[in-house]
Amino acid sequence: DCPHLPVEIITHILSYLHITDRKEASLVCRSWYEASQYRQFQKNVTFKFPVSTSSLDFIRALSRHPHCGLVISHLDDSALSRQVLVEVGVHLGPRLDCLALPGSSITESSLLGLLPHLTSLQKLDLQGLDSLFMSGAFLSREEHRRQVQHALRKLQELNLSDLRYLSDLSFNRITSCTPRLLRLSLAGCHIAFEFDPYRGCPVGSGSSALVSLRNLLSLLQKQAGSLRSLDLSRTSITPKSLCSIAQVPGLRLEELSLRGCKELMDYSIQILCKQQNGLKMLDLSSCTELTSRTVLAVATKLKELRSLSMSQDWKITDKGLAELMALPCLRTLDLSECLHVSGADLVKGLSSPQPRAQPETLSLRNCTYIRDSVMYSLSQLLGCNLKVLDLTSCVYLTDLSVRAIATYLPALVVLRLGWCKEISDWGLLGMVEPTKDCEPRDKEEEKGPSFTRTFGNMGFFQPPSMPFQEKPHLVTDEDLGAFREQEGASLLALRCLQELDLSACSKLTDTSITQVLRFPNLQRLSLSMLPEISDESLVSVAHHCRSLTSLSLNHCPQISDHGMTQALTHLKRLQHLYLAGCDAITNKTLSIIAQHCEPLKTLDVSMCKDITVQQVDYLQSHLPFLEKVQCRFVNGADFTMVL
To answer: What is the pLDDT of residue 536?
Structure first.
């Protein structure tokens, strides 16, 4: 009997909802669904699906969208796959903005039948499609090249990553059809960069089996006016080859990825920074020969740099990091697994009165020299700008760092503290742990047996206990009362938090988890390997964090069916659930998941000894979106279901 609301009013209501809530609201009735498809909600939409008979009707239904992207997986040479590509060309051809075909093995004829229809295509992803290039005949006919060139004249992004059989001829043919590229990826391709001194040319330049440096340089020269992003990660690029690329006339790169290029040396990066000083994104991760000279070159020359990644560059030290903090545009800095970085020079650079960087993302994962004093100073200096902070495996950080983070970084969206074993309930609650009673021992006990300096251990002494093995002082009810009354620096202050990782912080118990983890917008949470938390924590998290899409509880021995039964009724958005090694979980939990977790895509129940394969099969038949189930060592089985 309720009057029908105009679609404009429904659209206005939906505009206030999170995208997940909007999807749920679209299922109320047809008018709400139509309102959810309004153009303001459908910008840059990409649809991902595997090949199946139902995908044919889905593709036809997409024809009403003005523009969209497709990610179609598991295509092969079957009649169904060919029919899917035909339907895409007929119904979506001029409307398709981007196309990706991961995990596929399609033939040349199938793709050549589709590409001429895609006249508005801006992004083409052919990553790993070796079946297209294995014969070396792709686009060998002139008429095919003309058709494809006409269709791809607007193409801006081309991904040719991980193509083992990409040859000079194939590379020339496909890039000749894309005259105005903005972004090109050749990550993981076999490219002949090495120079042959006897022939005076790059190795492989006389063969069509590999892409040669000569042909790559030729392409860069032709498209220097448009090309702004280049990805050569995981290639065998040499220092001299990088210098040649950096010095191409007219080339003005803004993004360059060299991740995993292990042959690069400092001098090549110095020349790169001098020649390509307009770079805004530079990825030098896993370039293990680089030292702090590279950091100084980046800090001196790349004044417009916004993002820098130097993770796993093991020779990097603190030297140069102070100068790096003088880059006013720098927003993202990744120093994870730079084992010699202590952060002292970061503090020094950020303390400068001159214009300085304002990082929004900072990763110090596995930087084991980071201490509380540095983290306290960084928190004060970074303030409200920082959105993402990764301190995973910074094993010497304690509750003091947690209190500093909660006090000075209120805008944090992502916080990762996994494997920081010194963090306890006191830190999450924002309280100072009372000083432990130190009772003096008797003189005889203190002195112990007397031995000469050369006398061996002989088992008389026990090895010293590690700090993280000590039992923390337990929080009492009186302490909790004081916590509720104070307005201190508890983790509750981080109201914008959407991702939190507390994995392996083994001193945490139900006391802090139930009191502090109350974030309505939290989407991803990891509490794996917390032996002291129980169903009480799980139920509290489910009640206060109902936006969770990913929950990890691996190796939490006290989590049981009882807690899962109470929790899952509140977690309607859950898409990824990890319960590996939870010994108290049985088939009952899988039944509850089947009832309440319809959006679930990923489930890990490995090493859950009381779960059966038959119940996993039952779950698969009841969850329409389930894509992957990890079942290793479940009831004697050892396998992974990819659905």
So the answer is: 97
